Task: inverse folding
């Protein structure tokens, strides 16, 4: 889904 | 968030704060490569373009602001601060860092996860971060020695990427479909670039003598 490839890392 | 990524972020934070503290306290940037600092400012600027559009967490946004603020502050100090700029070793810090940016941009245009403006610039920032330390390592080879704070700066910077590799391994095994080859390979290349520095840093620490890099 969208959030799976959301960039959550810095 | 896992302990490896938190350790990585804290180590990264420490590296920029150590450098900013050194420059602010002793009003000197001797031994520091402005080219590397300019590359890092570009890395953060192209990495965090989505800071206003995509909200992940307070932590994420706060850290992005700190990294952006500190990297641009360091460049400002080294270029424009009346006292600090005089301590910048411009004749030795001659790495053609613009020649690093072009291949990274071309590579990002060729290899990326999605061909969109943000994604290509984000990928560019990954490739650029992998090589951004080169001007600093070249400067150290030239000046042949390294003062403690600059050594700590590079040591922490290498450590942050090492922790991130552990974080990627952890996430690969704990999160289904967590696969980001581009990030992993760029991060691995970056960490390997530090490997020889780490070796000499460890030797100097073990033999308790000033760190001398081979010519």
Result:
């Amino acid at each position: 889904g969208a959030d799976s490839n959301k960039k959550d890392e810095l | 968030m896992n302990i490896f990524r938190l350790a990585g972020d804290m180590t990264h934070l420490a590296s920029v704060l150590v450098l900013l503290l050194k420059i602010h306290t002793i009003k000197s940037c001797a031994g520091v490569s402005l080219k590397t600092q300019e590359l890092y400012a570009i890395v953060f600027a192209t990495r965090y373009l989505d800071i206003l559009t995509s909200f992940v967490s307070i932590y994420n946004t706060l850290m992005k602001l700190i990294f952006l603020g500190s990297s641009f502050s360091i460049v400002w100090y080294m270029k424009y601060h009346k006292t600090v700029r005089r301590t910048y070793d411009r004749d030795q810090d001659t790495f053609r860092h613009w020649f690093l940016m072009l291949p990274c941009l071309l590579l990002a245009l060729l290899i990326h996860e999605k061909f969109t403006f943000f994604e290509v610039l984000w990928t560019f920032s990954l490739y650029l971060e992998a090589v951004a330390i080169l001007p600093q390592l070249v400067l150290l080879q030239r000046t042949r020695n390294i003062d403690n704070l600059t050594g700590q700066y590079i040591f922490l910077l290498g450590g942050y990427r090492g922790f991130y590799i552990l974080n990627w391994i952890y996430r690969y095994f704990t999160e289904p479909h967590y696969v980001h080859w581009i990030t992993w390979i760029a991060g691995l290349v970056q960490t390997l670039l530090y490997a020889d520095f780490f070796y000499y840093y460890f030797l100097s620490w073990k033999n308790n003598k000033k760190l001398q890099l081979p010519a």
